[in-house]
Amino acid sequence: MGLFDMFKKDKKEKSYDPLNMKVTDLDKGFIFDYDLKTWVVEEVYGYDWGNNYTSKEYKVNSGDEEYFLSVDDDDEVFITLSKKIKIRAIQEDLPEVILEKEAPPKKLVYKDTKFYSDGEEIGEFRWLNGYEENDPAKFISWEYFDEDDKLTLCIEQWGEEEFEASYGKVLKEFEISNIIPSEQ
Description:
There is one protein chain. By secondary structure, the protein is mainly β. It has helices spanning 87-90, 94-101, and strands spanning 31-34, 37-48, 54-61, 66-73, 77-85, 107-110, 113-127, 137-145, 151-158, 162-171, 177-180. Strands 2-3-4-5-10-9-8-7 form an eight-stranded antiparallel β-barrel. A hairpin with a 4-residue loop joins strand 3 and strand 4 (66-73). The longest helix has 8 residues, at 94-101. It is globular, with a radius of gyration of 18 Å.
């Protein structure tokens, strides 16, 4: 330990205005309202998409439901609220199709809704719950939207043969309200 290391703060300074909280300020332990329910942020994840482009995802719980709130603040704030689903619920042979063709189909149908590919992204995932060091996990993500861009379907490939999928909806920033910071 160097002479000045003892003066370094353990946690980063908070960079939000507690009187004007935004969805981009969310962190572990924060509370917010959405759809007539109060939600707690249980975990925070970071995604690095390359070229200085990053996003965050929050595991949120209302007591009876658990979702993943994705917040992308590139040019404008883009928010999705998704739930994990089984990839074979989308299409029974989807993992095999992806392995054979090295990509999923351009169009998928789930819950009687047609979803259209919005492209492929390669990224790195990290836990952001106060862990000092954690190795990033690399993955491929394919995102889909319905015709109205209100619903989303996401497929991820982790490693050679591990797949995850999620289904959700696109939110407007004003739908997340009454954000209260954690006292941690």
